[in-house]
Specification:
alpha+beta; 4 helices; about 30% helix
Length: about 150
């Protein structure tokens, strides 16, 4: 009987897109959303450390904003993450009243002692592209971050 040695190949795990919905009832909701995204990124074999932490800060800021302004109904905040070419696309959606993103990002209108109003500015500085849309009564903030996937 002849046996030949076949080198075992480890199957590569490719993380597909995810959607995670949560009810913003406590600060734990935001930490859980951040952990879901971190675990998803870590499951992909080509994820590089560069930009990883920046994207997680963006997740925290966007989920905090969404949780603050959402209705609080079950599943009123949704976070979606996917790969598109070599970029990670992050979307955070809520059913809150919406806002004018140009006013929020203008730091000249924020007093130094204000505790709110810097989140979107921080996110915009950490990602490569950011858009804000209002779709069917929901606010969707979408970001793309390059440099996380090794090519």
């Amino acid at each position: 009987m002849l046996r030949r040695h076949v080198e075992q190949q480890t199957p590569s795990v490719v993380a597909g897109p995810i959607e995670f919905r949560f009810t913003p009832t406590s600060p734990v909701s935001v930490r859980l959303a951040r952990r879901v995204v971190a675990n998803w990124l870590e499951a992909h074999p080509s994820v590089d450390g560069d930009g990883f932490d920046e994207l997680l800060v963006a997740v925290s800021e966007l989920c905090t904003n969404a949780a603050t302004h959402a209705s609080g109904d079950v599943g009123s905040v949704a976070i979606r993450v996917r790969f598109e070419n070599a970029a990670v696309i992050l979307e955070v959606e809520d059913d809150g009243p919406g806002f004018d993103p140009d006013e929020v990002i203008d730091l000249t209108r924020i007093e130094s002692y204000d505790e709110h109003g810097r989140g979107l500015f921080i996110v915009k500085s950490l990602v490569d592209e950011m858009t804000v849309d209002h779709v069917h009564g929901r606010t969707v903030v979408a970001c793309s971050k390059d440099g996380i996937i090794r090519t």
